[in-house]
Each structure stands twice: as C-alpha cells, then as structure tokens.
Write a structure and sequence with these properties.
With about 425 residues, the protein is mostly helical. The chain is about 75% helix and about 0% strand. The longest helix has about 40 residues.
Length: about 425
Amino acid sequence: MEKWLIQSIWIAVFGFLKEFRPEDPYITQYLTNPPMNFTNQEVIQEIFPVSTYTCLGLTIVMFLVTDYLRYKPIVILNALSSFTVQIFLIFTRTKTDMKIMEVFYGTMTACEVAYYTYVYSKVDKKYYKTVSSHMKMACLIGRLVSALLAQTLIDNHILTVPHLNHLTLAGATASIFWAFGLPSIKSSLYFHQSPEHTYIRNSTDVNVSKPKTVCQRLWSDFITAFTNRYVLQWSIWWALGTCFYYQCMSYSQSLWQEIYQNGTDLQVTDNGMVEAIYTIISTLGVYLVGIITIPSWWLVGILTLGQGILLLIMAQDTLLSHAYVGYIMFGTFYHIMATAANCEVAKNIPADSYALVFGVNTFMSLLLQTFLTVVVNSPMGLMLDIRTQFYVYGGGCLIIGIIYTVGALYSTYNTMMRHRIFTTSN
C-alpha cells in the first residue's frame, strides 16, 4: 500500500473516532430530563450559545496555531476536549458546569481545522481531492455508526439516554490514544515549509527577489483567493449557508422537544434513526453531485430556497414526523451545496491556499452565527422562542435563495446572449 494512502487512512480513523458520539442525537433530551432537568429555554438561550462564542474566539487564531505547532498537538487537543465534554456531562449538574462544558465543546469544534488540514502536509497535492474525500467519508461513517448504535440500544432498552454519554466517553478515550499515535509533521503550509516547497512557491512569483515571510505568504494567498470574484461569490454563500446550517442543526432537537411535549405522532427517542437516515441520504447526495452535471448557481439558488421553505414549514408543524423529514432534507441540501462550493473554490485557487480559505470562510460563518445567536437567542437580544427562531432562519434562507436564483438567471441570460451574438456573427 502506498505511503500517502496509509497516512490518509490513519488520520481518517481519527475522524471516525472523533465523530463516534452516540449521545449527540439525544443531547437536548438529556439536558431537559432527569438527572439534568434544565428547561428548553435555558438550553437554547443560556447553555448552547456558549460553544458558539468560544468557537468564534478560538477559530481566529486556531489556523495559525495549528500550522505553527504542526497539526498533531491540536488534533490531540481536539480529542482531549471531547473527553472533557463527556466528563462534565456525566458527573456535573449545574448550569454553570454546563456552560463550562460548552466552552470545551467549542474548543473541540475549533480544533477540527487541524483534522481537515493535517493531511495536506503529509501528501502530495495531486492526492488532495482523494484524501479530502477520505476525511469527509470517515466523519460521515462515524456519525452513521454511532447514530445506529444509539437507536438500537435505546429501542431494545439496553441503555438509557444518560448511559449513552459513557459510550461516547469510550469513543473519546480511544480518539486520544489514536491521536498520540499519529505521525508527526516535519513541515507545514506556512511556518515550517520544506526547502523544496519554499523554493517552488517563491519561484512561481516573478516579483519575488527574496523569500517571503509567513505574513507575506498568508497575505499573498488571501489576496489571490478573495480578489477572484468567482471565489468570493462562492465564499459568501459558504459562510452564509454554513451559518444557517449549524444554527438550525444545533437547535433542531429543541424544536423536536417542543413538538413532542405538545403531543405528536412519534416518539422523540427516534432521534438516532433520523440521524442515521440523514447521514446516509446526505452521503448519497454528495456522491450524486459529483456525477450529475447541474449548473452550480442554479443548484445553490433552488436548494437554498428549498431550505427556507422547509424551515418555515417546520416552524409551524405539530407532527414530529414532518419535522424529522424537514431536518433530513435541510441537511442533505446543505451537504450537496457545500460539496459544490468546495469544488468550485478549490478549482479556482492554488492548492496550498485551500486550508487558508477554509479557515477564513469558517471564521466568517462563525462570526455570522455568533451575531445571529446574540440577536435571536441571548438575553442581550430578542430571546425568541424556538418556533419563532426557525421562522427567522427560514426567512434568512429564503432571502439568500432568491439572491442566488436571480444571479443564476442573470448568468444564464448573459450566456445565452453571448451565444446568440456569436452565432449571428458567424
């Protein structure tokens, strides 16, 4: 087996372990029932927002720290943070404890930049597309296995929801040991470049008379990427789309809990099965987007409009089955569009810039999500109830969808006119 493939599989196994979190589909149910007994409003307005604020504060420096420390220490920090989250969930009970837990959860999320960029420093750029798919698939498989396992254990009364935290703790412990066994990185994209890589980068710039500093390389890559109008348009959607995706996914369980408490058609204990179905369908959707040719702007415009409509329906629905279907479709639409966005951006920037663009777009998404959380959830803002929140999210997606659909119409019209003029002139 080739060395690059072994390295890719090695880090992908960590991706599986870090996503093996059987309690995730039931986290709101756990927090709002014994032994925790928080109200739904306390969870969505006081506890969950802490992780968003933490992640924003760390992401702005995490990419640089990750590159400077050569990835592995941040991957280990990711695993240690996941372990600490579970310790707090299992052994503590106060609201303050849960807020501290969310700090570690936000740290864990911010550290994911190390996982997604680690492998780029270990393999040749010609393998970037292949190893990127390995990273994504490993995470999806981890989510699928943990969701199916959680649902099976709950349905057969083998474990209760609180016990799932112990299972997740076992996965986090395994990820720590695996992270320590990851191969070390000798060179990185910016701070610790190999002599050959530094020479290649500098020799491609005819204006360079001496080697660039780290700041100069970062600024050069940033300008190259974001002065490209096409890349900028996709990055704007990436930031907005990801913002609404994570906001809706973070609070969907609270909406389900609201629907369930008022009487509905299904049991809220079906969350694990819903998560498993969502993962499978999303994976198929991502696969199909790679083999079916659809104009990308039309894809984004129509699917974002669809997301907005789904959220508006979910906001007023009283049937848990409908909310589950809406969750699956909303998430699948996002993964399809995110895959298209990633491909379009990657095709139009230098390979070495992808990690930087990923970091910048992630930070902008978190900045928008933090603003949305402050306005919609927090005591400093409107403190909207969960259904009204989903009206806001749905309205936001509708606006984005309309803008990109109009853009797709304009682009298609211009293409047709240019073709018509060309045909007439010949």
